[in-house]
User: What shape does this take?
Amino acid sequence: MQHALQKLGYKSYHMIEGARNPKAFSYWLEALKAKYAGEGKPYERPEFDKLLQNYSAVTDIPCIMFSDELLAAYPNAKVILTERDVDSWLVSMNKTFYVLFSWKSLYYLAPFDPSMVGPYWKTINFIMNIWTGGSFDDRSKLCQSYRDHYAHIRAVVPQEKILEFKPKDGWEELCTFLGKPIPADEPYPRINQPDNIIKMHTMVWYMVVAKAVQKIGGTIVAVGVAAGAAWYYRYKS
Assistant: This one.
């Protein structure tokens, strides 16, 4: 959906956008803790304006965790509810996020990058805890959270402001709903495939490994220099 909206002239905030603004993940984590753990002030229009001031649409996590707050902050917004069978969504989750959570090294490496990967890893873990009731392996709870989200959006968004959209239907219904011309000779994009997500996170893994090596290496060098200096002055005197 993000790529489709971009083709129609919108700048859409997606999870991957956090990579362009590393501080954003810290703010989203702060907002999640305020809403779901009662820690700090809940985010409202002023806070969302700061996070989303350069965007005209939102998709994906973490934004969908704040559906009610965003609807209250931007009451004129239109909502596109992408219809997807829960079983196919679970297959996708098994091929993406559950693969990532099996990379145990990330739990130890993420803190070496406190500006981006650390808050990002905490954010997606926090969200999965909410969706699964604290038990990552509970796929049934995960699927129920998916159904509950869809039911909630249908209940709170006025009918004239919501489009229940199936990507297989292509551009026409989406463009009519948004009042946009249909892109000429442009197939509806389907880019967010599991392999792409894993490739992107593999790059993240290598990046945080490099930072860990840099920090650990720097510490070892510093300790080595200090030990060498101590030895030198001890035996020189």
